[in-house]
Specification:
single chain; 8-stranded parallel β-barrel; 8 strands; about 15% strand; alpha/beta; binds 2-phosphoglycolic acid
Length: about 250
């Protein structure tokens, strides 16, 4: 049985002060959580000096694959470790599209995160053009295989399937589409790794998840939780989604 995960990707939102306040409000609003892990992913500046404990964890939104050196604007895994970061989003579609990250650099980040003891959340998903051209499965397969190149074990890896056309648009994939893609992802994982590992890897769905559709989305076979953007910025909406997943 895979433990469900709800991760909130704040993107470039909330100052350190706002973020700290937000987390304390979510914790106060949450009640008893018994079944799931919750990951807050603030911007880098909001990661320092946050005091949270399981089932709440900290995630970063990106990292670099070198330890230190002349890489202006980058953040290493060591720096994240010192902020008690336990997860890192890698290969988000906004990083791929706006910052030109390719599968090769994404793979280097995944490898470095694993080596450092931080769990990568590898994001994959097709654009609207790729979907319309019937290429979605090829793209997903390629992103998955390249992202996991040279990875020896899936043990600390999370996959997040996020159709790019569903991110921040209010559109979500249909239950059938999501179920099919999640099964496809698990099939690819089972071709690359042994059954025990591939069957135990969390596969999250992301793309316009909100408190109104969370119930339906979490009951789709193969969905082990969510990576949430917009709705993760609102105390009431985020807490409601967490409760829905916890109570499922
Ligand atoms: P969204 O973003 O929930 O606002 O669609 C999801 C994401 O980018 O991870």
């Amino acid at each position: 049985m895979i433990k469900s995960i709800v991760a909130g990707n704040w993107k470039m939102n909330k100052t350190p002060k706002n973020g700290k306040l937000f987390i304390s409000e979510v914790l106060a609003n949450m009640g008893q959580i018994s079944n799931i892990d919750i990951i807050f992913c603030p911007p880098f500046t909001g990661l320092y000096n946050l005091n949270i404990s399981p089932p709440f964890y900290l995630g970063a939104q990106n990292c670099y694959f070198e330890d230190s050196g002349p890489y202006t604007g980058e953040i290493s895994l060591n720096m994240l470790l010192e902020c008690n970061v336990e997860y890192v989003i890698i290969g988000h579609s906004e990083r791929r599209r706006i910052f030109n990250e390719d599968n090769d650099s994404i793979n280097k980040k995944v490898l470095k995160a694993i080596e450092s003891g931080i769990k990568p959340m590898l994001c994959i998903g097709e654009t609207i053009d790729e979907m319309n051209a019937g290429k979605a499965y090829n793209i997903i397969k390629k992103q998955l295989i390249s992202g996991l190149n040279n990875i020896k074990s899936l043990k600390n890896i999370i996959i997040a399937y996020e159709p790019v056309w569903a991110i921040g648009t209010g559109l979500t994939a249909s239950s059938e589409q999501i179920n099919e893609v999640h099964e496809f992802i698990r099939k690819i994982l089972s071709q690359l790794f042994d059954d025990k590992e591939s069957n135990n890897t969390p596969i999250l769905y992301g793309g316009s998840v909100n408190s109104a559709n969370a119930n339906e989305l979490i009951s789709i076979d193969g969905v082990n939780g969510f990576l949430i953007g917009g709705a993760s910025l609102d105390v009431i909406k985020f807490s409601k989604i967490v409760k829905i997943v916890n109570d499922q």
